[in-house]
Design a protein that fits this description.
heterodimer, A: 53 residues, mainly alpha, 0% strand, B: 454 residues, 19 helices, 3 strands
C-alpha cells in the first residue's frame, strides 16, 4: 500500500509536467523537419547549380 | 517562520489540470503575439510626466530626507527590538518586519508604486548623510571613490540575496530576533565599507543586494523617475531598458531558485531527500544540526542551479535556430524576461504569508519588543484574522499571478526577439524555446504551490 501511495504521488507530479514533455516532443519534430527541409533545399540548389555550369 | 496554508478540497478540477490550462494559455498567447505583435513596442517606454509642481514636491530634498529618516528609524528599530525583545520570531518586530513587510511586502509595493525602497533605503540615506557631513566639515571636495569593477556586475548583490535567503531558509535559528539583528548589523557594516570604497550611489545600484532586488521589481511598474521628473511609462517598458551586467542571470536565478527551494522544501520530494544528505554530512563529523543546515544549503543551491540551468538550456536552444546569435548574447538579451517570473513566484508563494503574518504589524507597532513590554497605540492585544482569505480563493489568486507573470515574460521575450533578429521567421522560431522555458517555469511554480499547500 505504501508503494502504491508513493506511486500515486509520483504520477500526480508527473501529470504536472506532461505539457513540458509534449512540447519537447513537438519541438524536436519541428526542428528535425526544418533540418530535413533545409537539407532538401541544399540538395536541390546543388543539383540545379551543377546542371547550369 | 512557516508560511504554508491548509489544503483545498473544493476545487472543481484537480490542481494539475490548472497547470495544463496555464500551458494552453501560454501557447495561445504565443500564437497571438506572433500574429498581432509584428513590431517592437516596449523598447522605448516614453514618459507621460506628472504636473511639474507635483514632481517637484515628490522629488524634493525635504521628501528625500524624511523618507531616508523613516528608513533609518526602521533599521534602528529592527536592531533594537531584535537585541532587546523577546526571542520569539512571531512576537518580535525584528523578525516579522524583515521577513514579511520588508522582504515580501516591498515586492508588490515596488511593482505598483515604483522604486520606493530607493527612497527609504537606510544604508543609502546614512551613506549620503555621512558623505555630506564629511564634505561640509572638510570644506573641499572629497576624493573620488574607486571605480566599480565591471567584472563584479551584480555578483555582490546575488551573493547578498543568497546569504539572506540562507538565513531565512537554511539556518536553524535564522529567524530568531537576535540573529536577525546581528545579521542586519553585519550587512550594514559590509554595505558601509563598500559604499566608502565605490561610492554610495554606485554601490546602491549594483552591489547592495536589496537595492538591486527591489529596483528590478520596480522596473515592472508604470511609475518612473527621469531626473527631477516623475511620470508614467508603458507597462513593462522599464524592464526592456534594463542593461544586463555580469552576474545578471545568476541574480535572477537566485531570486527564482530560492523561492523554488522554499516551495519544494515543504513537499515530500525534499523531506525524503534531506535526511539522506544530512546523513552524508554527519558521516564526515558534523553535528546533526549543522548537517541538516548543510543539507538545506545544498538544496538551496540546487534550486538556484535548476533555474540557471533551465534558462541556459532554453537560450542554447534559441541560439540553435540560427541568426548568428551566440548563447552568451541571447542569455543576456533575454534575462530581463525572468523578472516577471520572479515576481510571479514571490507573489504566488508568499501571498498567504503576507496576508496572514503581515497582520502581525497591527500589534507589533504597539509592542515591538513582544511580551508585555508596551502598548503604544492600544493595539498590542490585536490578533491575526486567518479568515482574511480562504484557501480556494488563495489558490485562484496564486494561479492568476503565475499565469499573468509568465504571459508578461513571454510578451517581453517576443518584443526583444523582434529587435534581436532581423528576420521575423527566426524571431518566432527562437521563441519556441522561450515558450518551452515559460511553460516549464509555469508548471514548476504550480507544482511547488501544490507541494507547499498540500
Amino acid at each position: 500500500m505504501l508503494i502504491l501511495a508513493h506511486a500515486g504521488h509520483w504520477l500526480v507530479s508527473l501529470a504536472y509536467f506532461a505539457p513540458v514533455a509534449a512540447f519537447v516532443v513537438w519541438l524536436v519534430i519541428v526542428t528535425l523537419k526544418e533540418r530535413w527541409a533545409g537539407r532538401g533545399r541544399d540538395h536541390e540548389e546543388k543539383g540545379s547549380g551543377g546542371g547550369g555550369s | 517562520m512557516a508560511h504554508g496554508i491548509v489544503g483545498r478540497s473544493d476545487l472543481p478540477i484537480p490542481e494539475w489540470l490548472f497547470g495544463w490550462a496555464a500551458a494552453v494559455v501560454l501557447v495561445v498567447s504565443f500564437v497571438a503575439l506572433a500574429v498581432l505583435w509584428p513590431q517592437p513596442r516596449l523598447q522605448d517606454g516614453g514618459l507621460r510626466a506628472l504636473p511639474g509642481a507635483l514632481s517637484a514636491v515628490l522629488t524634493s530634498r525635504a521628501v528625500e530626507v524624511v523618507c531616508g529618516a523613516v528608513g533609518v528609524g526602521l533599521l534602528f528599530l529592527v536592531v533594537y527590538s531584535g537585541l532587546r525583545g523577546v526571542q520569539v520570531a512571531s512576537a518580535n518586530f525584528a523578525s516579522n518586519f524583515v521577513f514579511v513587510v520588508f522582504w515580501v511586502g516591498l515586492v508588490p509595493a515596488s511593482v505598483l508604486l515604483g522604486d520606493v525602497f530607493r527612497a527609504f533605503n537606510p544604508w543609502r540615506a546614512l551613506g549620503r548623510t555621512v558623505a555630506w557631513i564629511s564634505q561640509t566639515a572638510a570644506r573641499e571636495p572629497m576624493p573620488a571613490p574607486l571605480a566599480y569593477p565591471q567584472r563584479l556586475g551584480y555578483l555582490p548583490a546575488a551573493a547578498g540575496l543568497l546569504a539572506f535567503t540562507a538565513l531565512e531558509l537554511v539556518a536553524s535559528s535564522g529567524s530568531q530576533p537576535k540573529n536577525v539583528a546581528v545579521a542586519t548589523l553585519a550587512y550594514s557594516a559590509i554595505t558601509f565599507v563598500a559604499m566608502a570604497l565605490y561610492g554610495v550611489e554606485e554601490w546602491s545600484r549594483k552591489g547592495e543586494a536589496f537595492g538591486v532586488y527591489f529596483s528590478l521589481f520596480a522596473r515592472i511598474s508604470v511609475w518612473t523617475r527621469r531626473g527631477e521628473r516623475l511620470g508614467l511609462r508603458k507597462p513593462l517598458s522599464g524592464l526592456a531598458e534594463f542593461e544586463p551586467l555580469p552576474g545578471s542571470v545568476l541574480l535572477l536565478a537566485v531570486m527564482i531558485g530560492t523561492v523554488t527551494f522554499d516551495g519544494a522544501g515543504e513537499g515530500p520530494l525534499w523531506t525524503g531527500a534531506a535526511p539522506r544528505i544530512q546523513d552524508l554530512f554527519e558521516s564526515i563529523g558534523l553535528s546533526p544540526e549543522k548537517a541538516l543546515e548543510g543539507a538545506f544549503f545544498i538544496g538551496l543551491c540546487a534550486g538556484v542551479a535548476l533555474i540557471f540551468g533551465f534558462y541556459r538550456l532554453g537560450m542554447t536552444g534559441a541560439a540553435s535556430v540560427g541568426g548568428n546569435q551566440s548563447v552568451k548574447r541571447l542569455t543576456r538579451a533575454f534575462v530581463h524576461t525572468l523578472v516577471p517570473i520572479a515576481t510571479a513566484y514571490v507573489m504566488a508563494h508568499y501571498l498567504t504569508f503576507l496576508l496572514y503574518q503581515g497582520q502581525s504589524m497591527k500589534f507589533l507597532v504597539s509592542n515591538p519588543l513582544g511580551g508585555n513590554a508596551t502598548n503604544i497605540f492600544g493595539t498590542a492585544d490585536d490578533a491575526i484574522d486567518y479568515g482574511v482569505i480562504g484557501a480556494t480563493t488563495a489558490w485562484y489568486c496564486q494561479v492568476g499571478f503565475v499565469v499573468v507573470g509568465h504571459v508578461a515574460a513571454l510578451t517581453m521575450a517576443h518584443d526583444r526577439a523582434l529587435v534581436t533578429y532581423d528576420k521575423a521567421r527566426l524571431a518566432v522560431r527562437s521563441q519556441y524555446w522561450m515558450l518551452l522555458v515559460m511553460i516549464g517555469f509555469t508548471l514548476l511554480a504550480l507544482w511547488l504551490l501544490a507541494q507547499s499547500n498540500g
